Each structure stands twice: as structure tokens, then as C-alpha cells.
Amino acid sequence: MSQPPVALVTGAARGIGLAIAQSLIAAGYRVMAADLGADQAWNYQLGQASDIAQALQTDSPLTDNTPLFAVCTVDVTNAAACEQAVQKTIETFGQLNLLVNNAGIVDSGPITEFSEAAWDRIFAVNTKGIFLMSKAAIPHLLVADNASIVNTASIAGKKGVSNMAAYCGSKFAAIGITQSMAQELALDKIRVNAICPGIVGTAMWLDHLIPKNTADNAAPVDFATQTQQLIPMGVAQTAQDMADAVLYLARANNVTGIALTVAGGMEMN
Fold first, then answer.
1. pLDDT band at residue 264, thresholds of 50, 70 and 90?
2. What angle do CA 24, 30, 34 make, to 5 degrees?
3. Quick check: is 29 catalytic?
């Protein structure tokens, strides 16, 4: 009897990544949920990242002793750490069918004031992280059934936005990497796709993008009001919307090289 498929999800401690991990588990996947861990701080106003094991155990009906999920620490900017996360996945579950490159960070500001260190960090996580994790995972995906990679890009990877050159650039790159890998790996039957979230009510938006891009003398903009103004369908996207998109791409056996926008009509092509 064939074993249930196995997914490795990066950036899985909160928000979109956590929803992806939970949805994959509910859909019958065994999941390695990877993140920086509790001792690492994000580059926007979140304090410290949640402990990934606690987050999954709190929000998942599964318990510590189930074989259906495990957790590990990974820094996607470090090649050795990426290799270790993949190896732990193989040691724990014996195979790898799906890699979800979801880890990502954001920063914003005028290009003339943006620091080189912040620029390098965004590209290290948002683009180099895809490269390093994929490079570590591909040898195992080559021998897996229904193998695929799903990268988290953004609608900011399809249209530039003022004060967001680093983030937009990194997400345009994520889409380009997705398309190149899809071409390269097609004959090996490894599908490579991306999701492009719109406005999702996660910490990235609530704790960074809205406060930082509100003028000092301006009244705070209510998140629901802003989404009604920006999104044709009038409502924000959810982490679950993104998880649904990942699950579709994981199962779509004849779909590769797409950047699937999930944005309520905010970006159309």
C-alpha cells in the first residue's frame, strides 16, 4: 500500500504558512513544518516568532505523538540548514512529495533611504531561500510520486508599488525562478508553481505595511475599509484562501509554471 504524501512547508509558524500546514494535514499529507523557531526575531514589528510546535499543537487537532506531522527549525538563507530540514523530513517520513517555499519577509521605504542590509535580507529570504530549499529537495522529489514545488510569491511580483522596490523585486524574482524551474524540471515530472496572495490580514500587513505607510499626521486606516477600497470584491483574502490554492496546485497533475493570483480581482491578467 502506498504511503500518504509528504510535504515540507517553510515559514509554517504563523499566518499563511501555518494555514498551509494545517490544510495539508487535513487533506491527508504528512507535514514537516519548518520555521526559524522561537529564538529568532522578524524584521517587522512582531516581537519574536512563535514557537512552531506550540503553534501547530494549539491550532491543529493532531497531538504530539501522531506520525502525521513534525516540526523543525530552518533558516532558508543557509544552505546547510536547508539540507538539514530536507534530511530530517526524509528521516521522519521516508519521502518528500511537495515542497512549499513559503518563508518570506517584508520591508518598505523610499529607495533613497532603504538600507543595503535590508535589501540583502529581503532577497536572501524571498529569493535565495527558494533556490536553497529547492536545490536541497529536488534529489528527493525526483524519486517521488506526484512531485511538486509551490512558491509563495505575491501580486507585488506582478506590478511594482511605490516604496516597495526590494519586496516587489524579490517577488518578481520568485515568479521568474518558478517559471525557470518549471521548464527545467518538466521532463522529470516535477511541477513548479507559485501562489500570489493579495491583501491577507496577517502580521505582514497589520503590523508593518499599514502602519509604516500611513503618514504621521494621518488617522489610522481601518483594515476592512482599506480592503474595501483596494479589492474589487471588497473583502480581504485569508490565510485559508492561500492554503486552498496550494492544495489545488499540489493536486493539479497537468499544471506547471503558473503564478496563481488569489486577490479578489485586485490583480488581473
1. low
2. 80
3. no
User: What is the rounded distance in angstroms from the CA atom of residue 31 to the CA atom of residue 172?
Assistant: 28
Which grid coordinates belong to 56?
501547530
Say if CB 69 and CB 47 are below 8 A apart. Answer: no
Q: Specify the pLDDT at position 221.
A: 61
Q: What are the boundaries of each domain within the chain?
A: 6-198+237-262
Cite the beta strand spans of the chain per DSSP E: 6-10, 30-35, 69-73, 98-101, 148-152, 191-197, 259-262
Which one of 29, 44, 167, 248 is the catalytic residue? 167
In 59-93, which positions are buried (b, 16+ CB within 10 angstroms) versus exposed (e)?
ebebeeeeebbbbbbbbbbeeebbbbbbebbbeeb
Q: Are 128 and 75 in contact (CB under 8 A)?
A: no
Grid cell for residue 153 = 510569491
CA angle 196, 127, 186 (to 5 degrees): 70
Query: Hey, what's the cell of 254?
Result: 497537468
Q: SS3 for 220?
A: coil
pLDDT tens across 164-212, in order?
A: 999 999 999 999 999 999 999 999 999 999 999 987 755 554 555 555 5
> 144 or 2: which carries more pLDDT confidence?
144
3 state DSSP class of 192: strand
Burial class, 121, CB count within 10 angstroms (exposed 0-12 / middle 13-18 / buried 19+): middle
How many CB atoms sit inside 10 A of residue 146's CB? 15
Assign domain 6-198+237-262 to its CATH architecture.
Answer: 3-Layer(aba) Sandwich (3.40)
